């Protein structure tokens, strides 16, 4: 289907000009786009009646001239965003500028399988829409992050290790059945990277975000765009081999994987072995905050191990920003200090001369924010936005 | 300077439609772009008089109707492309479709410094232009690849290890002084990656090209675009640490760098130590072709070592294509066999399920071809092409 079947030519062009938020008159738009004035007038009427544009000057009720300036209307539609983890989810309803209108944290168990988990998410999503005084017909789309590998194009998880029952499940079809809205899915680290980038780092072109929690993963931004890779598997650094000898067996079957050496789960196991009992990232963080020297030592060493692998990523990808997030990063500066130590030692001077190695700034909102932007960027792009005008 | 100062609105839009090579009538262009018919007629006249468009139907000399169909004219301008190595260069003049019109190989010594080398390149470039029956005023631009790190935005080499006298030299200013044309510069591996991708792999989105010669480097393609990184240093994998114990000292000061272990120079040194004298990649290739088992063993091990680092690159970047080129790859299948062995052993199944690990297909033309596309893509992009119409 070409775009001409969807909406009249020029509509998308006009809308892309206006997405920057600056109000314009029809005459200005004709001058900027080169479109005929009559075409501009017609297309603007279509965009106004779709709600994607609004008048930005008020009609003078005492009899002045009618409103002439139009602007993008972020309130035209809403997005339901869900950042689903192993044991909890964060849900939000945002407007088309990505601003959160309402949000909610929810306890769940990913191992209950896709139907149970997604039905809960959709139920709570409906409640959030009501809370925001909107309904399902206002949905531009639904954006979902999952804690495992996802084939982004189909929205299906691919052999996710901690998600029994999810392999190959058609997440978009299920959610569309529940809420009637187009749904995009990606892994939790990618949406976190997108959210963090859009909130804080858009003046740079290239970023790597690493998430250190039960597992270890990363998200890559190239020229401001999420680099997903061919199977949507880009950024998967948990099973990269650490460059020092180790015989630690990973659940993937290889030895010396980063995740088997430096994840929250790995540190908890090492601490337990050293006589300091811990079962997960949260325990490790608590021990660190209570001043356990053994815990701090292990966190710092994990930072160095992660930094060794990130040094390779920095040499290959040459980002401006390397952001460190995830549950284990809550233990304070020890993790990132280890990362810095190894990255600066092993990367080429040219690749690190302007590199910023920083803690995640967006906190735990990065995921839902990124999930919302994933939907907004896709649906409002030229070639997509036309479909919103024929509904 | 906004684009409105350069050329009338709509010209770039029209030209981008026509860059696909398909001829169109003015009426078709008005329908496709939504531009007013009078605007289309004016802008097409401008593009025709610049030469960037041509009539694609012949006027009927016996009195038929005048020509009405216009198309992109790749012969409108030419590009001078130079792939400069340590001891030789390949030069070519191409048209705006990137097709080589004339080319030449040239012996030179990069250590003679930038002024000597670039003056030689410009002199031979002028001769090639004459051979192609064009002159300097026909140049769209000059594209140059250099065997060291280059800050792409400024076109200046940055601490290039094998290029004495080149650090910080303003290559574009010098070449513009000689030939009067805008000049873009990048490192040799990036232009090789771009040339190989555009010639053979555009149906895939993501590619890594690794060049194994005296040094080891790679070029990354993300969504069809060269990922250069923040300092133009992306793909620099020569100084990534190999993940097994080694005490080999690298010229960069670290130990265990890939380049110190697996480059052509490193293999030559190991062979010499083993009683099989060799001084460079070419010697190693000759030994391999003559059936030296020791040489084949070392090449295969180099392939494994390179593959260990590439396994990390594959996990992080998730390309569809991993192309292996450079002088050492001429030794036959042994290098790439070692690469395949390590990549398939160490990368995640998801990242390798559709991965193609292949020898470079473009041969030694990849570099000049990529240098030409670097110039063409830049100069004919919307926002740039307008400047060609005011000259």
UniProtKB/TrEMBL annotation, chains A, B:
Keyword terms, alphabetized: Kinase, Transferase
UniProt superkingdom: Bacteria
UniProt cross-references to Pfam families, sorted A to Z: HTH_24, ROK
InterPro entries assigned: ATPase_NBD (IPR043129), ROK (IPR000600), ROK_cs (IPR049874), WH-like_DNA-bd_sf (IPR036388), WH_DNA-bd_sf (IPR036390)
Keyword Ubl conjugation: no
Keyword match Ribonucleoprotein: no
Transmembrane segments: none
Record GO terms (molecular function): kinase activity
PROSITE patterns linked: ROK
Entry's family note: Belongs to the ROK (NagC/XylR) family.
Protein name: Putative NBD/HSP70 family sugar kinase
Provenance organism: Prauserella rugosa
Lineage of origin: Bacteria, Bacillati, Actinomycetota, Actinomycetes, Pseudonocardiales
């Amino acid at each position: 289907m070409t775009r001409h079947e969807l909406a009249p030519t020029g509509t998308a062009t006009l809308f892309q000009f206006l997405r920057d938020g600056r109000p314009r008159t029809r005459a200005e738009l004709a001058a900027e786009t080169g479109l005929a004035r009559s075409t501009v007038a017609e297309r603007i009427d279509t965009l106004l009646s779709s709600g994607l544009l609004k008048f930005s000057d008020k009609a003078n009720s005492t009899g002045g001239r009618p409103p002439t300036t139009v602007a993008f209307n972020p309130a035209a539609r809403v997005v339901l965003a869900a950042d689903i983890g192993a044991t909890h989810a964060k849900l939000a309803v945002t407007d088309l500028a990505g601003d959160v209108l309402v949000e909610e944290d929810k306890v769940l168990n990913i191992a209950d399988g896709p139907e149970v988990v997604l039905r809960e998410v959709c139920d709570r999503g409906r409640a959030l829409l009501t809370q925001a005084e909107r309904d399902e017909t206002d949905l531009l789309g639904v954006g979902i992050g999952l804690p495992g590998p996802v084939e982004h194009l189909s929205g299906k998880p691919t052999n996710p290790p901690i998600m029994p029952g999810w392999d190959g499940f058609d997440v978009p079809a299920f959610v569309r059945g529940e809420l009637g809205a187009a749904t995009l899915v990606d892994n939790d680290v990618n949406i976190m990277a997108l959210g963090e980038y859009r909130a804080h780092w858009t003046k740079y072109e290239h970023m790597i975000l690493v998430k250190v929690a039960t597992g270890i993963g990363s998200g890559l931004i190239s020229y401001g765009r999420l680099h997903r890779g061919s199977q949507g598997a880009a950024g998967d650094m948990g099973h990269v081999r650490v460059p020092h000898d180790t015989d630690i067996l990973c659940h993937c079957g290889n030895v010396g994987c980063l995740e088997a050496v430096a994840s929250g789960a790995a540190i908890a196991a090492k601490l337990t072995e050293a006589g300091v009992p811990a079962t997960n990232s949260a325990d490790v963080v608590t021990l660190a905050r209570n001043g356990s020297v053994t815990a701090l030592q292990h966190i710092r060493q994990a930072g160095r191990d992660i930094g060794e692998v990130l040094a390779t990523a920095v040499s290959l990808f040459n980002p401006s920003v390397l952001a460190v997030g995830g549950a284990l990063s809550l233990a304070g500066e020890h993790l990132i200090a280890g990362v810095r130590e190894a990255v600066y030692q092993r990367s080429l001077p040219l690749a690190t001369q302007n590199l910023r190695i920083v803690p995640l700034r967006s906190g735990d909102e990065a995921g839902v924010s990124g999930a919302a932007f994933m939907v907004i960027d896709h649906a409002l792009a030229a070639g997509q936005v036309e479909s919103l005008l024929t509904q």
